[in-house]
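Priority: medium. Attachment 1 of 2:
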């Protein structure tokens, strides 16, 4: 059995419900600002989430849903500029406090930090989005929570590839068995499994609740708290009403005992 030493958190959909009313809206504002007639509805965006990474997602959209649009010669620069504009719109929303942490996230982060667990972020999103989300929700001492922020283009292959989790563990000199990953999506689950992290907790959201989470150790609707307990979709909280550090330690012990 390995000691539980670190929690590795996904961001979008896990720490905060950012996609439908955050990233999607920011993309549409960037498209409008650029004079493009592209509009990503909630339904279309749900399909586009199959591809992680905003730049990659825009290319997926053009290839699969708007083949009529001819990218200019400097296609990469065109996409990169659009993405910079989208990131500005998204971080503006964060600074306006429009996107809170999900229920139980701040409690769990604080409990984990006080219990001496090491914390990291492992996300596909742009690093600036992470720092702005954490600053706007945890305040100025947000950096005291996380030892490593593994985000975006720091690795060549985004989720479902395992690269971002492997990079985070390398930075922390951690063995996969010493970690517990927390995700929201099938792409995230595949990335964690590919990184050979055996203990994986999924918290579902509106876009991901029907995805395939094969390989997850525990699936809940939210991390929850005393006022708003978790519903367990698969697995066990060992009698706790919401996701606690004790329940995560017990889960990790069971998974790594084998
Ligand atoms: C979710 C993603 C990101 C966001 C958009 O990341 O796939 O691409 O949708 O952010 P995760 P960017 O669930 O791994 O946190 O436009 O900055 O990529
Ligand atoms: Mg996610």
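Attachment 2 of 2:
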């Amino acid at each position: 059995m390995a000691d539980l030493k670190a929690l590795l958190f996904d961001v979008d959909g896990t720490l905060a419900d950012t996609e439908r009313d955050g990233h999607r809206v920011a993309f549409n504002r960037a498209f409008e600002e650029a004079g493009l007639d592209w509009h990503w509805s909630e339904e279309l965006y749900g399909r586009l989430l199959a591809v992680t990474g905003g730049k990659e997602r825009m290319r997926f959209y053009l290839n699969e849903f708007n083949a009529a649009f001819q990218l200019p010669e400097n296609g990469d620069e065109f996409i990169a500029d659009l993405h910079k504009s989208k990131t500005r719109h998204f971080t503006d929303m964060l600074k306006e406090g429009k996107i809170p942490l999900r229920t139980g996230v701040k409690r769990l982060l604080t409990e984990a930090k006080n219990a001496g667990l090491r914390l990291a972020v492992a996300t596909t999103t742009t690093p600036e989005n992470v720092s702005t989300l954490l600053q706007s929700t945890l305040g100025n001492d947000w950096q005291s929570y996380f030892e490593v922020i593994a985000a975006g283009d720091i690795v060549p292959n985004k989720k479902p590839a395992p690269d971002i989790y492997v990079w985070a563990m390398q930075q922390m000199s951690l063995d996969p068995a010493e970690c517990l990953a927390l995700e929201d999506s099938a792409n995230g689950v595949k990335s964690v499994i590919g990184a050979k992290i055996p203990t994986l907790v999924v918290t579902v959201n509106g876009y991901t609740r029907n995805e395939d989470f094969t390989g997850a150790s525990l699936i809940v609707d939210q991390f929850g708290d005393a006022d708003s307990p978790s519903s367990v979709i698969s697995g066990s909280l060992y009698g706790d009403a919401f996701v606690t550090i004790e329940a995560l330690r017990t889960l990790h012990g069971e998974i790594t005992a084998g």
